[in-house]
Amino acid sequence: MAEEEGLRVSARVLIPETHLEESFIRASGPGGQNVNKVATAVQLRFDARGCRVLSDEVAVRLMKLAGSRATKAGEILIEASRHRTQERNRADARERLAELIRAALVPPPPPRKKTRPTKGSVERRLAEKKGRSATKKTRGSRIED
Length: 145
Prior knowledge:
By secondary structure, the chain is α+β, with helices and mostly antiparallel strands. The protein is 39% helix and 16% strand. The protein has helices at 33-37, 56-66, 86-105, 119-139; strands at 7-8, 14-15, 20-25, 41-47, 75-80. The chain has a 3-stranded antiparallel beta sheet with strand order 3-4-5, with helices on one face. Strands 1-2 form a two-stranded antiparallel sheet. A hairpin with a 5-residue loop joins strand 1 (7-8) and strand 2. Helix 2 crosses helix 3 (86-105). The mean pLDDT is 82.
């Protein structure tokens, strides 16, 4: 089987490599000398608006889900620096982008339609309440001499 070029999101969606841009930067935080001299953190940019693989509705949902990771230019920026190696950070960033796109591919549920109870069900409920009330009234309190 030939190696696919791009990011496999689902069985039907493959993001071409041309829409993904990776740059390696130095990670912040603890790590001693290693963190100061090796660029292990990954910055992954995905051009969501320019990608024709995703429909416009999916792209809009994706930008909304991305929140602060989305730029005004329509790109999604994911930074990964959890791991110590470039390869693992690269895989982590790609998987996080794929999860975000998978979530955007799911259409939102249709809005709930308000319903009213039928006249018969309202009458039955009120009749039952009256019956319960009558039962409780008959109990009363016993007065002992």
